[in-house]
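Session log. Operator J.P. requested a structure for one protein chain; no other inputs attached. Running the standard single-chain path with token output.
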Amino acid sequence: MRKLISVVHTSLDGFVAGENGDFDKLVQSPENLDFICSLTDKADALVAGRVSFEMLDSYWPTAHETPGVSDSAIRYSHWYNSAEKIVLSNTLREKKDDNVTIISEKIEDTFIRIKNKKGKDILLFGSPSVCQALMNLNLIEECWIIIYPVVLGKGIALFNSKERAVKLKCLGSTQFTMGEIAIHYKFEY
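Structure written below.
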């Protein structure tokens, strides 16, 4: 069975973005994208909510054509273009291409079917509401939380479920040159 792994960037106080969805305070080290590419090497699909998908899809399909872009950005752009894209959305209806699956109902059944298909891992990028929904269905096996050395004070929270506590087991961590720390957890439902 394929593993579903959440990958999320957050401030020290647990916000994935500012109040308006801005990320400008989460400054990445040069090797941060190299690290993300090490995760995409083991994956062939991505999951996102509509907002995160539209943000990813507005840049990554053509990023490899941008003059002066890093080797990691080229690598990630090519991976993004070949990856199966699974979008959880109640408002997005039209698929851009055949490599996009939009899910708006029967989430648990659909994900179990997707996870049972032959393939590599599935990465969930951003999308705190999608992460919360899939976590509440016990569908996420692992997560990488990349914590930035900044306190936003307010914004879009990574976790805000009051349904139940979920225990995590730390599997390791990696520190980057600008102070971010990527912590690898396994969910213990």
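Operator note: The radius of gyration is 16 Å.
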